[in-house]
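User: Hey, my collaborator sent me this sequence without any context and asked if I could get a structure. I don't really work with proteins. Can you help?
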Amino acid sequence: MKKAVGFLLLVSVFFLFIVINCQESEKVSSEMASVKKWKIHDKDRPLPPVVDPGPSILPVPAPSDAEVLFDGKDLSQWEDSKGNEAQWKVENGYMEVVKKTGSIQTKKGFGSCQLHIEWAAPAEVSGEGQGRGNSGVFLMGLYELQVLDNYENKTYADGMAGAVYGQYPPLFNVCRPPGEWQCFDIIFVAPLFDENGQLQEPASMTVFHNYVCIHHDVVLTGPTAWKKRPSYKAHPEKLPLSLQDHGNPVRYRNIWIRNF
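Assistant: No problem. I've predicted the 3D structure and written it out in structure-token form, which is a compact way to encode the shape of the chain:
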């Protein structure tokens, strides 16, 4: 009798596992299909509603187990894309993009993580659309969360501040005025590949912009590219975090990360 009960329990657990995996697979397929039904940077894609995020409580202190990547003092944990010394400006507790010096990346690699990063678009408004306060946070150097001044500044939905660039617009536009400090809090789950380089699980993100949830466990279709949605290609479990030089003097401060 005990053996029969044990066998039935084992069978039940097995079928529950199958059901859960099927549901997860359906979720992934559904979300990817929802992205692909829109052209990249489709002008007809609806823009998210504007929401006032409320009073700022920045800067947010790092938890005791977090690794501080930028404390406002220097770029000792950063380098350019070629491994040379990072050339961005550091003053008054922040780093600032220096045009044409190139994107910068951490010297250390990271995978699945919780990332907190504070940023500010230039106080002096210049340009419009994608030309205004443009930069980006690249998880693993591949998966971009867009940085842009979208305060009373329209652009295509999947290129707005907080967009998973070229894939998912943010659920809400919670941008603060130019020059004011803002923050992203990102839960990133890195993709998994098998020993043959085949994708087993795609990457996903949950994102808060100025404390407002703008993405909830969205499944990424692949890495970021301009006017393309390339497929996944196998890569190491950990890669550097990158910040983009898009030619605008965007500022960053108080960057910390917790590994999963």
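In plain terms: The chain is about 15% helix and 30% strand. You can pass these tokens on to your collaborator as they are.
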